[in-house]
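ok so I'm stuck.
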Amino acid sequence: MSPMLISAIAAMLLAATLYTVAVFAERAAATLKPWHLALFWLGLVFDTTGTTLMADIAGGWKWDVHGVVGLTAVVLMLIHSAWASVALLLKKERVLRSFHTFSIHVWALWMAAFVSGVVLVALKLG
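replied:
not stuck anymore, here's the structure
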């Protein structure tokens, strides 16, 4: 396995772990907290890194279902993290308490992209 592929896999697994912990911890806390926000941004950084490396390995961006869902998920993760930043800065209690409803939807779409990538690789190898 190439060092680039190992780095891409590690980045994607870190993104999945960080984003999952952040989303479900936020849900359990019933309010958005600064450490959730930090994990959202870190998850986005690792996801973007892993996605960029995977695209390089694949020879460029693919406009298939996985590519479109993945791009949509990254854009939503960026919007999600930015909105969480604003919500924490403004300290709007209602937004902080209901933010998890948006978080779970973004996470679910991101997971669909993540799993579809794993399935596509498994199908190519199998």
